Amino acid sequence: MGARDELLSAQRVVVKVGSALLAASPDAFATLAAQVAALRTRGVEVAVVSSGAIALGLAPLGLAARPRDLPSLQAAAAAGQSRLMWRWGEAFAAHRLEVAQVLLTHGDLRERRRYLNARCAMRRLLEAGVVPIVNENDSVSVDEIKLGDNDTLAAEVCGLVDADVVVLLTGAAGLFTADPALDPSAVRIPVVDLVDERVRSLAGPPAALGTGGMVTKLSAAENAGRHGASTVIAPGSMDQVLPKLFAGEDIGTLVCAPASAKASARKRWISTTLRPRGTVYVDEGAERALKKHASLLFAGVREVSGSFAPGDAVDVARAVDRAPFARGLVRLSADDARRVAGKKTAEAQAVVAALPDELIHRDDLVLL
User: 2-267, superfamily in CATH?
Assistant: First the structure.
């Protein structure tokens, strides 16, 4: 139970609420708002990542079930988002708390200036005592800028606001040793110290109404861990689940953050938020140098794959086994990187005009 002691001192929390949970009861919004308000009275700042816009937008569009095509999903999100905010606004007004709508896409998180703008806005809302209600901007999202699910979004919001804990409220009582619906001997796992292949094998398929399942929750927990935050997968229907969790009670599954210190905000942005546009394969000498905090020079590059522009994120992998071990911001386009791969700086300067000193500067590189 000592692993849960950190929940007692949490100062900033991200709570994710799934669609199925909100649809399960007409009182769901009021119940959860009351629990968040209870945390606020203890001085805990809370950001809520809320699903439900698409589900609330089905009726206005005359739809009986969640559509599959992108235009219908976007339309349902647009129709449902205002209804979602009205529900939350009404629920929190009973506790004299204001809410603010924050809609994000992956594009807002991968572009540094937009990321910092979102970070400043979110932190200012929390400082002002406002409860941010965060959702993916599904009405304009397409595959290129889509985060995918709100478990993933909750982990990203954790990084934005430097949260201590992420709580993923769901219909399950936590992670189990087997599917409790099929195996009566299945038992809840109270604490996970490391998300490895054995733990991932315990996750089941996605949920029917939402987009995520235990697989995405474990993935989100790993991402939150990179931001230095622990994650709790907890049953949202349990009475007073949030106050009980932050009183240290043994509820759900706590996925502990790594003991290592938090990386800088910028390097966390590179390693967890950006999506690599390609891969640079390097020799053993370059790998050793990078692991000693050196920059990646052109001579150590053996191969370049993908299509990227200067400033994009790329994975750095070993040429011998193709395994990625780092991620960084590249300073050349993919075409230019291929032209100078394997060349010493003097040779490379004759090939590409205005050549930088390195392909990836050490300050823009993160070991994975």
Answer: Acetylglutamate kinase-like (3.40.1160.10)
How many angstroms separate the Cα of 199 from the Cα of each of 23, 152, 153, 217, 220?
29, 18, 22, 12, 14
CA-wise closest residue to 214 among 226, 222, 205, 224: 205
- The percent of residues in the chain predicted with pLDDT above 90, rounded, is 52
Specify the CATH architecture of the domain 276-367. Roll (2.30)
pLDDT 10s digits, 70-117:
888 889 889 989 999 999 999 999 999 999 999 998 888 888 888 888
Closest CA to 72 of 59, 86, 85, 61: 61
9 phi-psi bin (left φ>0, alpha ψ -120 to 50, beta other)? alpha
Where does residue 264 rank: exposed (0-12), middle (13-18), buried (19+ CB within 10 A)? exposed
**What pTM was computed for the model?**
0.76
